[in-house]
Design goal:
Structural class: alpha/beta
InterPro entries: AhpF_homologue_put, AhpF_NTD_N, FAD/NAD-bd_sf, FAD/NAD-binding_dom, Ferredoxin-NADP_redctase_2, Thioredoxin-like_fold, Thioredoxin-like_sf
Number of helices: 14
Largest sheet: 8 strands, mixed
Distance between the termini: 43 Å
Region (Disordered): 316-364
Pfam family, one: Thioredoxin_3
CATH class of the largest domain: Alpha Beta
CATH topology of the largest domain: Glutaredoxin
Number of strands: 27
Strand order of the largest sheet: 21-20-22-23-25-24-26-27
Shape: globular
Oligomer: single chain
Protein name: Thioredoxin reductase
Catalytic activity: [thioredoxin]-dithiol + NADP(+) = [thioredoxin]-disulfide + NADPH + H(+)
CATH architecture of the largest domain: 3-Layer(aba) Sandwich
Radius of gyration: 26 Å
Length: 597
């Protein structure tokens, strides 16, 4: 048998629950597996704010659940790569996955690319996406506080998210094309019986129209009679549209490679094999009658076990062996626990659950902590211990309660940093009372700016800042921004590093985010990772809940929103400094595409 260092047993394309589960099973069985993801590991479930029906986990959110899955797979030895698969060569014993970062050789392939929200094609859908038309209630519901909203769809998502939207909307009108909901009766009943929800059956959204402040009217069509009517909110104001019309399978990569059904879903057989030997499919992209996290993970496990057998057979047939994992983090932990138990003559006890401490916080760090529980404090200690150089956090404050909260929040973090962080406070222009919205990065207060320490000991701004308090879903992105600025930072492959370095003219990225949005952190992290590596890029995040004037200026009704302004030479594509606006979750490669790198 001959070892091939550039060979994998299996390449998993897609880093959602199905792909992560397959990676876990394969790595645990000591097969070399690479999980390939073009955007954010975790898949569509990461935008779900509450998961209560995953067995064994009483209550969590989608991002936490899949983060645990990824950690499990990684601990068993699974490898991960951020790249986009662009083609497949599936003939012969050795298959090749072509990506935008090079070719990958393997015995078997698992397609787990999932599905994305379906666009239904009504007039104005594309034009007003992010400005009244939305696809994520968790991320964008707050933008319609006190307004009416229309929900399009008759399935699980439409029923469940309509109830969620009643937290914000004054009224929710559900448009169902059929004569009833298509989901479980108990789920539909909650929407049907809610006092703030009206359901219109046999009704289809034909189009929307807008005025200066947002959507003002909708054209509805009766699917039985064909009659159209104009709908307007009762108060004569603006409204929002949330589309929950199912998903489109992400199968373009395998179109013409494996068998698909008439709707574009992958046809699989008894053990999830496709029409091509050695190519399997798992998760939402395959033909199945229920698309939930639990069925995706089951798919991943079933396909992984079959791929183990397939890879073993191909290895014996070809005489080639990938360098399979033999000493994973999991095995090291088990060995360490066994040695400790042997030395003490006892069995290892489970680690105690972290307890949340209470009490008041102070900017000096004295007294009890309030912002961070014990688990978070331990994680911060690891990050601070790895930081290569100290940072200064420059606080630009005013006299608002939010400024006091930011000062206490940063003060507690500084106290935990072991000297790696310090602060300076700037209130010099706090009384000016005006923020110029014409600036590409408005000096909205309060904010915290990440600074290095100059040769003269003075803070040197890096172009990375957060306006508001970087808590909630933005806490992790803020901590990683500290790590990336201080160094060594998150690893970058050579191609990505070269693309970042190629940005030779100044560009400002205003990131409008919400602390309740599960898609925003990936975009903030990606943009600020680029800014940490290239001083030509400035990336400042604004909690839109505290700066409504920015939301109004750009008519933002969806997050994350990126306002990109290029300066100087090379800015001609944007009319010399005039901003371009983009919406949606972005990875580092996707942000580089937007920045033209």
């Amino acid at each position: 048998m001959q070892q091939q260092d550039d060979l994998y047993d299996v390449v998993v394309i897609g880093g959602g629950p199905a792909g992560l589960t397959a990676g876990l099973y394969l790595a645990r069985a000591r097969y070399r597996v690479l999980i390939l993801e073009k955007a954010d590991f975790g898949g569509q479930i990461t935008i779900t704010s509450e998961v209560v029906n995953y067995p064994g986990v009483e209550r969590t959110d989608g991002r936490k659940l899949t983060a645990t899955m990824r950690k499990q797979a990684q601990n068993f030895g699974a490898e991960f790569k951020v790249a986009e698969a662009t083609g497949l060569d599936v003939d012969g014993d050795i298959k090749v996955v072509h990506t935008n970062r090079g070719d990958i050789r393997c015995f078997g392939i698992l397609i787990a690319t999932g599905a994305s929200p379906r666009k239904i094609g009504f007039t104005g859908e594309q034009e007003y996406a992010g400005r009244g038309v939305a696809y994520c209630a968790t991320c964008d519901g707050e933008f319609f506080n006190g307004r009416e909203v229309i929900v399009v769809g008759g399935g699980f998502a439409a029923a469940e998210e309509s109830v969620f939207l009643t937290k914000y909307a004054s009224k929710v009108t559900i448009l169902v094309r059929e004569g009833d909901f298509t989901c479980d009766a108990a789920v539909a009943a909650e929407a049907k019986n809610h006092p703030k929800i009206e359901v219109r059956y046999h009704t289809q959204l034909e189009g929307v129209a807008a005025g200066s402040g947002g959507l003002t009217e909708a054209t509805l069509r009766d699917t039985q009679t064909g009659e159209t009517t104009v709908w307007k909110p009762a108060d004569g104001g603006t409204f929002g549209v949330f589309v929950f019309a199912g998903y489109v399978p992400q199968t373009e990569l395998v179109r013409g490679v494996v068998e698909l059904d008439d709707h574009g879903y992958v046809v699989t057989h008894g053990y999830l094999e496709t029409s091509v030997p050695g190519v399997y499919a798992a998760g939402d992209l395959r033909v199945k009658n229920l698309r939930q996290v639990v069925t995706a993970t089951a798919d991943g496990a079933i396909a992984a076990v079959e791929l183990e057998r397939y890879a073993k057979q191909l290895s014996e047939k070809t005489g080639l062996v990938p360098p399979r994992p033999t000493t994973s983090a999991y095995e090291q932990q088990e060995e360490k626990a066994a040695k400790a138990a042997s030395a003490s003559g006892t069995s290892p006890a489970p680690a105690p659950a972290p307890q949340r401490a209470g009490g008041a916080s102070s900017a000096s760090g004295a007294g009890n902590h309030a912002f961070f529980d014990d688990a978070i404090r331990q994680q911060l200690a690891v990050v601070f211990s790895r930081m290569a150089r100290p940072l200064v956090l420059k606080l630009e404050l005013d006299d608002s309660p939010l400024s006091k909260e930011l000062q206490a929040f940063i003060g507690e973090m500084v106290a935990l940093s072991g000297g790696k962080l310090s602060t300076v406070v700037d209130t010099a222009s706090a009384d000016a009372g005006e923020t110029s919205l014409d600036d590409s990065l408005p000096d909205a207060r309060p904010n915290v700016r990440l600074c290095t320490v100059g040769a003269n000991g003075e803070p040197q701004e890096t172009g990375i800042a957060f306006h508001g308090v970087p808590s909630g879903h933005e806490f992790n992105s803020f901590v990683l921004a500290l790590y990336n600025v201080a160094g060594p930072g998150q690893a970058l492959d050579q191609d990505t590093a070269e693309r970042i370095a190629s940005i030779s003219t100044p560009v400002d990225v205003m990131l409008l985010v919400s602390l309740t949005c599960t898609m925003c952190p990936e975009t903030v992290l990606a943009t600020q990772r680029i800014a940490a590596a290239n001083p030509n890029v400035r990336a400042e995040a604004y909690d839109i809940a505290h700066f409504p004037e920015l939301k109004d200026k750009f008519n933002v009704m969806s997050v994350p929103c990126m306002v990109i302004t290029r300066h100087g030479a090379g800015a001609d594509a944007d009319a010399a400094g005039s901003p371009t606006i983009e919406f949606g979750k972005k990875s580092v490669p996707q942000m580089l595409d937007l920045l033209g790198a």
